[in-house]
Design brief:
Elements: E1 4-10, H1 18-36, E2 41-47, H2 52-61, H3 66-76, E3 80-86, H4 94-102, E4 112-118, H5 127-138, E5 142-143, E6 148-150, E7 155-156, H6 165-171, E8 175-176, H7 178-197, H8 213-220
Parallel strand pairs: 1-2, 1-3, 3-4, 4-5, 4-6
Antiparallel strand pairs: 7-8
Helix pairs in contact: 1-7, 2-4
């Protein structure tokens, strides 16, 4: 059976970050769910903070270069996508929006996607529905019904106490609230179901010739 690929895009601006921690949890749970169904999947994680300058150049020039071009190719040919952003001022981060603004128009059509976010307060959770989901609907992605939001109280420290926002980012606690884990598991199950039946488009070389020189020369003959 051919190996499937799952790409995880993390829009966190700090390292480590609660955003990356949530992204990793979603990826691991999805991988385990697919394995339970007999599907092997390779997980690739993209930290947008590492490509911020290239993303800016993409918007200014219209061309992706270097490692960013490879990232876009991997997303276009992946079987599924997990997209996670911090919530700043009731919406996604600038680098997150700029990256998806720069994707070719057909990149995410019908692609299975989970959207998720982290934030400093639970009051920002609706940003997933009023900001992030419309973005991926516009890109015509196949977004699963369950979105996943993680506030500081969804994480716990090693002694079982609630973690504050700074502890989540700096100490990267591994203890997850049962409610958050339920949402992660539900979203992972929905994504796995879509991935099972999705066939990604082949990677296309933009510089490849559509016809051989012989055919082109022959067509030009009287």
């Amino acid at each position: 059976m051919p190996e499937h690929r799952l790409v995880v895009v993390s829009g966190g601006l700090r390292h480590p970050s609660a955003t990356r921690l949530l992204a990793d949890r979603l990826a691991a749970t999805t991988r385990d769910e697919l394995a339970r169904r007999g599907i092997e999947v390779a997980v690739e994680t993209v930290e947008l903070r590492e490509h911020a300058h290239e993303v800016t150049n993409l918007l200014l020039t219209g061309f992706a270069s270097g490692s960013l071009a490879r990232v876009i190719d991997r997303i276009e040919t992946a079987h599924g996508l997990i997209a996670v952003t911090p919530i700043f001022k009731a919406s996604y981060t600038g680098v997150f929006k700029s990256f998806f603004d720069g994707l070719p128009d057909e990149s995410l059509v019908d692609k299975p996607v989970v959207i998720a976010a982290s934030g400093g307060t639970a009051r920002h959770s609706l940003a997933l529905e009023h900001a992030v989901r419309p973005l991926f609907a516009y890109l015509r992605a196949d977004v699963v019904p369950t979105s996943v939001y993680a506030a500081p109280e969804d994480w716990a420290t090693s002694d079982g106490a609630d973690a504050d926002e700074e502890a989540v980012a700096d100490e990267a606690p591994r203890y997850v609230d049962a409610g958050l884990q339920t949402r992660i598991s539900r979203a992972a199950n929905e994504l796995a179901t879509l991935i099972e039946r999705y066939q990604p488009p082949p990677s296309i070389d933009p510089f490849a010739l559509g016809a051989s020189f012989e055919d082109m020369l022959g067509g030009a003959s009287p």
